[in-house]
């Protein structure tokens, strides 16, 4: 399982899911606009929200699922 931490528009996690077929990708962000942007990015790439693709409203890694294989992030500039 992989976490796109502070996912923003979800571009990095979406790319990994689409190209590398990551088993499960979680997208975590505190901002509702970012969460909606991630939904739009996933939809534009024909990736459905299901058990293997989930968006989490959270403020930090404390809100992340356990037993992740990796945490990725593309922090703001």
What's the helix count?
2
Q: How much helix is in the residues?
A: 25-40%
Order of helices and strands: EHEHEE
Termini Cα gap? 26 Å
User: Could you give the order of strands across the largest sheet?
Assistant: 3-2-1-4
What composes the largest sheet?
4 strands, parallel
Q: Unreliable segments (pLDDT under 50, ≥5 consecutive)?
A: none
What is the radius of gyration?
A: 11 Å
Tally of individual domains: 1
Q: State which percent range the strand residues make up.
A: 15-25%
Q: How does the helix and strand content classify structurally?
A: alpha/beta
Please state the average pLDDT score. Answer: 95
Shape: globular
Strand tally is: 4
GO molecular function, one term: S-adenosylmethionine-dependent methyltransferase activity
Keywords: Methyltransferase, S-adenosyl-L-methionine, Transferase
InterPro entries: RsmC/RlmG (IPR046977), SAM-dependent_MTases_sf (IPR029063), Small_mtfrase_dom (IPR007848)
Protein name: Methyltransferase
Describe the protein in words.
Keywords: Methyltransferase, S-adenosyl-L-methionine, Transferase. The chain has 77 residues and is α/β, with parallel strands linked by helices. The protein has one domain (2-62). It is built from two helices and four strands; from the N terminus they run βαβαββ. Helix 2 links the parallel strand 2 (25-29) and strand 3 (53-57).
């Amino acid at each position: 399982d992989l976490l796109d931490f502070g996912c923003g528009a979800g571009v990095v996690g979406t790319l990994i899911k689409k190209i590398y077929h990551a088993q499960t990708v979680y997208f975590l962000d505190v901002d509702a606009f970012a969460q909606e942007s991630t939904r739009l990015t996933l939809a534009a790439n024909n990736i459905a929200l299901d058990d293997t693709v989930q968006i989490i409203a959270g403020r930090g890694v404390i809100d992340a699922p356990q037993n992740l294989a990796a945490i990725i992030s593309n922090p703001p500039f």
